[in-house]
Write a structure and sequence with these properties.
336 residues, alpha+beta, seven-stranded mixed sheet, four-stranded antiparallel sheet, 28% helix
Length: 336
């Protein structure tokens, strides 16, 4: 919520666009904005209310942070969709921090920020064609607001909670970039929230992905930096190119082990983050083979360590690696 932080700048620009586009005759905006919702939600909110299948990968403990069997850290702000609709909201943007167990590289982080947008139409006589057309026009206008003149394309997608489902891609710096996912809200969700006679649309945007593209920020860890050399580069409501202020040396260590039962790379990355935090820049699988007799699988991962603010010493990297090895050994990893 820092005014000049790039994530907040993007958030405010999106909200500003919706305020202008959906201004009522009285001068107020049709949309309401929420950004203070509890990140702990029930599995019903996060999955069941959104029609996520029971066997969907997003429900696994390798993808989602569980507090207990019935409570999770939200994996998307869509978890508040029914809650807000049941309280009478028919047009809103909901922004918040979301959590997923994920790989370690320059564009993935266990915490990220998402904005959920929902509009339910008051007129029960509108058809699906009108809903999808309004959705597309709204989001194409948002891209124009953020990127300026840019080529866009719509791609068919699948999300359990919308039908039809679409992704909007923008042609930016010579490549197609997925910007957001969206679609017409499933009738069952509208029915469950007391809006069964109506239709509506919803979309979700990852603020980090937008900000990294717009400001040309190369590493997602920078969003958590308190370094003034990062923060002082940005101005309210302006898109400026980020200027790198340092590039400290990289140190890497390899780790090999026989995989325990049910192994998932996200679990390894979680252990790496536990010991290295933001000093872990990337984790890459560099070798894997299955023993022909035992059927056991051996993997070798390379862990790249780098600080955004200083040079690391070999000693502190060795200490982190030793602690990681000890932790893995106590969790069923047979180190090699």
């Amino acid at each position: 919520r820092k005014p000049l932080h790039p994530l907040n700048i993007v958030k405010c620009m999106v909200e500003g666009y919706f305020s202008k586009r959906f201004q009522t005759k009285s001068g107020e905006t049709l949309f309401k904005y929420y950004d203070d919702m509890d990140p702990y939600v029930s599995t019903i909110q996060c999955f069941d209310e959104l029609l996520v299948p029971k066997d969907h990968i997003s429900r696994s403990k390798s993808d989602t942070y569980y507090l207990d069997e019935n409570t999770v850290l939200r994996t998307h702000t869509s978890a508040h969709q029914q809650e807000l609709m049941k309280s009478g909201n028919r047009a809103f943007l909901a922004t918040g921090d979301c959590y997923r167990r994920d790989e370690i590289d320059s564009s993935h982080y266990p915490v990220f920020h998402q904005m959920e947008g929902v509009r339910v139409f008051e007129d029960p006589n509108i058809d699906s064609e009108f809903v999808v057309s309004d959705l597309k026009n709204t989001l194409e206008g948002l891209v124009l607001e953020l990127f300026g003149t840019a080529e866009t394309r719509w791609v068919n997608a699948y999300f359990p909670f919308t039908d039809p489902s679409l992704e909007l891609e923008v042609y930016f710096k010579g490549d197609w970039l997925e910007v957001l996912g969206c679609g017409q809200i499933q009738h069952k969700i509208l029915e469950d929230t007391g809006n069964g006679s109506l239709k509506g649309w919803a979309f979700g945007i990852g603020l980090e992905r937008l900000a990294m593209t717009l400001f040309q920020i190369p590493d997602i860890r920078l969003f958590w930096s308190e370094d003034e050399r990062f923060l002082e580069q940005f101005s309210e409501n302006k898109i400026v190119k980020f200027k790198e202020f340092s590039k400290y040396p990289l140190c890497y260590k390899d780790i090999s082990f026989w995989e325990p039962a049910g192994f998932h790379e996200n679990d390894l990355c979680a252990y790496v983050r536990d010991h290295a935090g933001d000093l872990a820049e990337k984790v890459t699988l560099i070798d894997r083979f299955t023993h022909p007799k035992t059927g056991k699988t051996s993997s070798c991962f390379r862990i790249e360590y780098r600080s955004m603010e200083r040079s690391l010493t070999n000693r502190e990297v060795d200490e982190m690696q030793d602690r990681l090895r000890n932790t893995l050994a106590t969790h069923g990893y047979e180190l090699r």
